[in-house]
Write a structure and sequence with these properties.
The protein has two helices and 18 strands. It is mostly beta strands. The protein folds into two domains: about 35-130, no CATH class; about 135-274, no CATH class. The strands form four sheets. Strands 17-10-13-14-15-16-18 form a seven-stranded antiparallel beta sheet, with no helix packed on it. The chain has a six-stranded antiparallel beta sheet with strand order 1-9-8-7-4-5, with no helix packed on it. A three-stranded antiparallel beta sheet has the order 2-3-6, with no helix packed on it. The longest helix has 26 residues, at about 5-30. InterPro entries: DUF1684 (IPR012467). Pfam families: DUF1684. It comes from Pseudonocardia alaniniphila. This is DUF1684 domain-containing protein.
């Protein structure tokens, strides 16, 4: 490749990344996105009220959550006002059931066998003072070709969480092998929610210039021969890097890279902990 072709290719990489990154930041900044979290309240079987939230809330002990309120409280579920007691049944490992509370949204979540309320408020300081996600410079050397070796059958694995005592149970589908910095590495690949592979890892930057709980990268589906393109420039933070009220999983224990992956998103500013 000539110098001119190389410069053109690098510019194309940066342009595509800039468009992708702008969409990523816009998604974070949505009214009830991850930057809007202002509270995480764990439930038990006793009805409880929480400061600033109307109604009372409790875990039923049999897989559900009950919210009790009067119509004047202004809570809405599925477009219908809550006028007495409503049972909700959130599912572990996926987004929760949404309860509207004026401009705020209360997300009722299940994590393992625990239940919680996650409050989303467009006026959260983490959203109103958001100035963007810092990143490493885009560099073509962090775009590498890997080879995916699928497991004979997907495996349900157990990983920890940023919240002590919680566990997550992602599905591992195989191992991705690749080379960077003249070294060979591998990562356990998780099943992506919208297809492709998810590589959740820590590296030598974790806890230094990047979030200590690890970062995540999503690839396209491997081809028929297992080849997969890995663009570390598109490595992103999980929600827990931006807020104290997320329950993010930790990476699989095997997914610790000795190399410093100086690509993708860096540790973001936290206006809520200044």
């Amino acid at each position: 490749m000539s110098i001119t072709d190389s410069r053109s290719s690098n510019q194309h990489l940066r342009d595509e990344w800039a468009s992708w990154h702008a969409e990523r930041e816009a998604d974070l900044w949505t009214s009830h996105g991850w930057l809007s979290l202002t509270g995480l309240y764990w439930l038990d079987v006793e009805p409880r009220s929480f400061e600033g939230l109307p109604g009372t809330w409790r875990a039923t002990g049999d897989g559900g959550v009950e919210v009790s309120a009067a119509e004047a409280d202004g809570l809405v579920v599925g477009g219908m006002p809550v006028t007495s007691t409503v049972r909700l049944e959130p599912v572990d490992g996926v987004p929760g059931v949404l309860v509207e509370a004026g401009p705020r949204t209360v997300e009722v979540v299940r994590r393992t066998d625990s239940y919680a309320l996650r409050v989303r408020d467009p006026e959260a300081i983490t959203r109103t003072e958001f100035t963007g996600v810092p990143t490493f410079p885009v560099d073509a050397r962090w775009v590498v070709d890997g080879r995916f070796a699928a497991y004979p059958q997907p495996r349900r694995i157990t990983v920890g969480a940023v919240v002590d005592g919680l566990q997550h149970f992602p599905t591992a589908v195989g191992v991705v092998h690749f080379s960077v910095h003249d070294g060979d590495h591998e990562l356990v690949a998780l099943r992506g929610k919208a297809g492709g592979l998810v590589l959740h890892f820590r590296d030598a930057t974790s806890g230094e210039s990047t979030y200590g709980g690890g970062r995540v990268l999503t690839t396209l589906e491997p081809d028929a021969e297992g080849r997969v393109r890995i663009d570390f420039n598109r490595t992103v933070n999980l929600p827990c890097a931006f807020t104290a009220y997320a329950t993010c999983p930790l990476p699989p224990a095997e997914n610790l890279l000795t190399v410093a992956v100086e690509a993708g998103e860096r540790d973001p500013a936290r206006p809520d902990v200044r």
